[in-house]
Design a protein that fits this description.
Length: about 450
């Protein structure tokens, strides 16, 4: 259990040690971000950082995280980090301020309604089967790249189901450049560095334009026919607010880009980490195979199999605990306020990190250990303790979509293939705003049951 929390006075949060002149804690955050952030609870429940000219607070206590995330009027999306994200997402659901959020969320929620999941799952299964049909025994694959292609195909297909095979959409190439560019931009310490005419920045701008053009064409095609194709785009085009107004083409475009960006890399990273964890924990993998052999009997997983795959689901939960893809996220204080007795000035940037929370030994005993069975308990973790999908009004709208995809993909793939990372080099995360593994290779072996 975390330390009890009884704030009574208003005091200033402690500053993390080790800040350098001018740069502050930015070098530590850039060079060993995860270790640095996981060490911050030792300095307090709310810890101040200097990131060049930016002052930020890292919220380390789960109860404070809960309070912040459930008060989106006081702790809104905004600030310099969000401004960079808005360059790409526009004012879509993930980046819009609280004032616009309620309307958008109400309009978009039907697209992720529980009843829609079986339809999406059917498309997911086709894409998973299509992607793995090209695999051969003994192939060596770049695992993160393969999972990224798979997850892009799934997200694109569920958005634009009419396009028989999502792999035929040029959206993949542009999204790849844009997603990686966004991650790098969010971490750039120098203001204006993203506007320099470097080849990388030019590639990024071109990919953004291409993406705009592709979605503009798809929206026009959908609007012209007006039929519900049971995909995300149809739901977006049908959505209306309380006054009966629909989304404009620009708004639809922003939501499409938001779903693509928010859905692809997160699920791809979850799958890639799951393969490394399963390879490193053969006893869990053996039990997984037993579950899959019993339930699937050699067939791909279907939506109706999900309740019979509890170990697969726990593997996904535990992977998200150890490697939550959006591992650090921000809010801005809209007014002078306090958090747990600490003064927080208007305009302050606040950061919360699912990675930090998930690695606290007082919340998760032996936190670095991969132990899917820690989820066997029926007791839910206290709010703010386990937060791979965030919390409150801004909680991930695609949580069920993402976990369904991850469980179906792990079950279908692990039933037929063993993925063995090439020995010798430990798999490490890239430095960026998402906890994504660096490229690593693995050998595929077809399983004999
Ligand atoms: C394993 C997969 C996923 C993870 C770990 C994940 C994680 C998250 C997190 C942590 C947030 C909250 C951000 C914050 O507090 O600022 C979020 C928001 C969001 N996610 Fe996901 N996500 C996943 C999959 C998806 C998918 C598949 C989609 C869509 C197809 C999606 C769409 C969104 C959107 C639109 C938001 C913004 C919600 C709002 O502000 O109302 N996510 N996600």
């Amino acid at each position: 259990m975390p330390t009890p929390f009884f704030p009574t006075t208003r005091f200033t949060a402690a500053t993390a040690p080790g800040g350098l002149p001018l740069l502050g804690h930015a070098p530590a955050l850039l060079h060993h971000p995860h270790e640095f952030v996981a060490g911050l609870p030792a300095h307090g429940d709310l810890v101040r950082l200097r990131l060049g000219p930016l002052r930020a607070y890292v919220v380390c206590h789960p109860e404070l995280v809960r309070r912040m995330l459930t008060d989106d009027q006081t702790f809104d999306k905004g600030g310099p980090l969000l401004d960079k994200a808005r360059e790409v997402f526009g004012n879509g659901l993930a980046t819009c301020p609280a004032a616009a959020h309620r309307r958008q969320r109400r309009m978009l929620q039907p697209a992720f309604h529980r009843d829609r999941l079986p339809g999406y799952a059917a498309l997911m299964i086709e894409e998973i089967a299509g992607a793995t049909a090209r695999w051969h025994d003994g192939d060596v694959i770049d695992v993160p790249a393969a999972m990224y292609r798979l997850s892009t195909a799934v997200t694109a297909r569920c958005l634009f189901a009419a396009h028989e095979r999502a792999g035929s959409l040029p959206v993949h190439r542009s999204m790849d450049v844009v997603t990686r560019g966004v991650g790098r931009r969010l971490m750039l310490p120098l203001p204006g560095a993203d506007r320099l005419p470097t080849p990388g920045n030019r590639r990024f701008r071109r990919a953004q334009q291409d993406l705009r053009e592709i979605t503009r064409r798809l929206i026009a095609e959908h609007r012209a026919t007006g039929t519900d194709r049971h995909d995300l785009l149809s739901t977006l085009l049908a959505a209306t607010d309380e006054d009966g107004r629909g989304l404009s083409d620009t708004e639809v475009h922003e939501q499409v880009v938001t779903f693509l960006l928010a859905g692809m890399e997160t699920t791809a990273a979850t799958l890639s980490w799951a393969w490394t964890l399963l390879a490193a924990n053969p006893a869990v993998r053996t039990r997984l195979h037993a579950e899959l052999d019993t339930v699937l009997d050699g067939q791909p997983a279907r939506h109706e199999d999900l309740p019979s795959l509890p170990l697969t689901a726990r593997i996904v939960s535990e992977t998200l605990r150890l490697y939550p893809p959006p591992w650090i996220l921000s809010r801005t204080a809209t007014t002078d306020t306090e958090l747990g007795g600490h003064r927080v000035p208007a305009g302050a940037t606040l950061l919360y990190s699912p990675y930090l929370l998930h690695r606290r030994p007082d919340l998760f005993p032996r936190p670095d250990r991969f132990d899917p069975d820690r989820w066997l308990t029926t007791a839910r973790p206290a709010p703010g303790t386990y937060a791979p999908f965030g919390l409150g009004a801004r909680r991930c709208i695609g949580d069920a979509f993402g976990t369904t995809e991850a469980v179906l993909a792990i079950a279908t793939i692990a039933a037929r293939w063993t993925i063995a990372p090439t020995p010798g080099r430990p798999v490490r995360p890239v430095r960026g705003s998402s906890l994504v593994p660096r490229p690593f290779t693995a050998t595929l072996t077809r399983r004999v049951r």
